[in-house]
């Protein structure tokens, strides 16, 4: 039986207040940064994240800058803390550069013209690269297809 069932009153939720891209938000304790951002309409790119699955952090596309941390963190695996200050690719050159580097890395063996790919133009990687203007790469060797 829950506290609500025994007393009839709703159970209080512990809230944590943080700042994302200069917007203050209060979310339940244990919320992931990527979910807190969604709550205020801030879109953070991602591939491996799904709200019904446990966080993995494999694609690294959701990197954000967190004040006090030495390097960008994956927002899909980072839990919010009281007073946390987060900057996404929209307001942080460091987060934007990190995401750009990860996209560039992902595109090494994935040509965006997709002539030989099973997806045939219906590719989440291609869509994300195009949506965020990250179709250029420094790696010009022959791609494995």
Keywords for this entry:
single chain, 145 residues, alpha+beta, Ubiquitin-like (UB roll), iron, NADH dehydrogenase activity, iron-sulfur, 2Fe-2S_ferredoxin-type
Structure description:
By secondary structure, this protein is an alpha+beta fold. The protein has a single domain, classed as Ubiquitin-like (UB roll) (Roll), CATH 3.10.20. Helix content is 23%, strand content 14%. It is built from four helices and five strands; from the N terminus they run αββαβββαα. It has helices at 3-7, 33-39, 93-106, 124-131, and strands at residues 15-20, 23-28, 63-66, 73-74, 85-87. A five-stranded mixed β-sheet has the order 2-1-5-3-4, sandwiched between helices. It starts with a helix and ends in a 14-residue tail after the last helix. It comes from Mycolicibacterium insubricum. Keywords: 4Fe-4S, Iron, Iron-sulfur, Metal-binding, NAD, Translocase. Residues 94-133 form the 4Fe-4S His(Cys)3-ligated-type domain.
